[in-house]
Write a structure and sequence with these properties.
Helices cover 23% and strands 34% of the residues. By secondary structure, the chain is of the alpha+beta class. The strands form 2 sheets. The protein has a 5-stranded antiparallel beta sheet with strand order 2-1-5-4-3. A 4-stranded mixed beta sheet has the order 8-7-6-9. A hairpin with a 5-residue loop joins β4 and β5. The longest helix has 17 residues.
Length: 170
């Protein structure tokens, strides 16, 4: 699976193509024209993306990183490439690297849960539960089906990420 999109200088998605949907026009219509910030969730994740956008726009460079984005029944690992372009545009290319099956986790199926917030690290996929970062499967029995997922970054991934890109943690 691959997704390719470009954001303009105002961080609006001006093109979107993916092979994840049977009809690419459906995805284009859903994503095109939207603010990038409406599809990137979690304050920590947004902060990191802002730092990366600033960096690639400044010198039209490229950066890549790996992340995890699970489905209810599957663990999925991706690689993201951001590349600065003319006019402060930024190209995003996301590529699926690998998957592994697991028993379904109902609260990962819902985009709009109404229960307690569960913070999920956008990089390693661990969950913050009772003050500790743990694998999703370890906390399933303790998390209600109504939980809503919020994306963040665990301290271990934050440290690694900041070191990889020479950024200071703020």
């Amino acid at each position: 699976m691959e997704a390719h999109y470009v954001v303009d200088a105002a961080d609006r998605i001006d093109s979107f193509v993916t092979d994840a949907f049977p009809e690419p026009t459906d995805a284009s219509q859903t994503w095109t024209g939207r603010s990038l910030w409406s599809v990137v969730s979690g304050d920590a994740t947004r902060q990191i993306y802002r730092q990366l956008l600033r960096r690639v726009r400044l010198d039209r460079s490229a950066v890549s990183f790996r992340y995890r984005c699970d489905l209810a029944h599957q663990r999925r690992w991706f690689e993201m490439l951001l590349r600065g372009m003319e006019g402060d545009r930024v190209e995003f290319c996301s590529r699926l690297l690998s998957t592994s099956a697991r028993p379904p986790i109902s609260w990962l199926e819902s985009v709009t849960g109404y229960g307690p917030a569960i913070v999920l690290c956008s990089w390693c996929g661990e969950v913050l539960h009772e003050g500790e970062w743990r694998e999703i499967e370890q906390v399933v029995p303790d998390v209600p089906d109504s939980a809503r997922v919020e994306h963040g970054i665990c301290p271990t991934c934050a440290t690694k990420f900041m070191a990889q890109f020479g950024e200071s943690q703020k």
